[in-house]
Amino acid sequence: MNELVLDDDLKENSWRLFKTQKNGYKLYSIGYTYTVDKPVLSLVPQASKVYWKCEDRTCPGRSISCGLNPPLKLTQSHFGHEKNINRLNELETIKKLK
């Protein structure tokens, strides 16, 4: 009843996980990119909750996920910048170059 209904394009862009150059994680979700806030990177793969922060250091945007699995729950809204829909293409290109 209270489920968010996403069209196919939005569904595809609601959760994309990438490994970083320093063996960390980047998460792209509906126009925003996040990095791991907590726990420390070595504990992330077995963590039951992962806390994410917006990639933009000036933004207070925060989210939580159950481990490295969808869904992503937004806990603090993004301010000071727009969604960056091109960032997904950038991350995909970097992934292909590795």
UniProtKB/TrEMBL annotation:
It comes from the Eukaryota. The keyword Zinc applies. GO terms for molecular function: zinc ion binding. Keywords: Metal-binding, Zinc, Zinc-finger. Residues 19-73 form the FLYWCH-type domain. This is FLYWCH-type domain-containing protein.
